[in-house]
Write a structure and sequence with these properties.
There is one protein chain. The protein is an all-alpha fold and 140 residues long. The protein has six helices and no strands. It has one domain (3-101). It is 78% helix and 0% strand. The chain is globular.
Length: 140
């Protein structure tokens, strides 16, 4: 198995567990406080990870465009997490997580249009199944 696939599978497992921990953790507190705690932990861990490796040596290689795009990515990640935690506070994990994970559909559309990644039948079929699965899971 290629390294990136192992990382992606680990990400999948941790993301799934994260939703359950967060739901229990939000039981008697405001969603924004939960987000603050989660994000603070992430910041500290990422900082230690970057400081412990060679990542910071690449800082001088960043172009203005790359920095702007990474800042935009941070802002959109914040907005995603903000609304995710607010939805998770009041909603069922099965519904919230299903809708959230359907973000892959937005990613696919943008990867086809902006990154010019190839549109393959298997990707379109998979996207259709993700959409259908999400609708089945959240249909009331």
């Amino acid at each position: 198995m290629e390294t990136w696939m192992s990382y992606a599978l680990a990400s999948m497992v941790f993301a799934g567990v994260t939703a359950i921990f967060a739901k229990y953790g939000l039981e008697n507190v405001h969603a924004d406080l939960g987000l603050l705690i989660r994000t603070s932990i992430i910041f500290v861990l990422v900082l230690f990870t970057a400081l412990g490796g060679e990542a910071l040596s690449d800082f001088s290689k960043l172009t203005g465009k790359q920095l702007l795009l990474l800042l935009a990515s941070g802002i959109t990640a914040f907005l995603s997490w903000l609304y995710y935690f607010r939805a998770l506070k009041d909603g069922l994990v099965t519904y919230v997580a299903s809708i959230d994970k359907a973000s892959i559909l937005v990613t696919l559309i943008l990867s086809f249009t902006l990154l010019r990644e190839p549109v393959k039948a298997q990707v379109l079929i998979g996207a259709g199944l993700i959409l259908a699965g999400m609708l089945v899971l959240v249909w009331r």
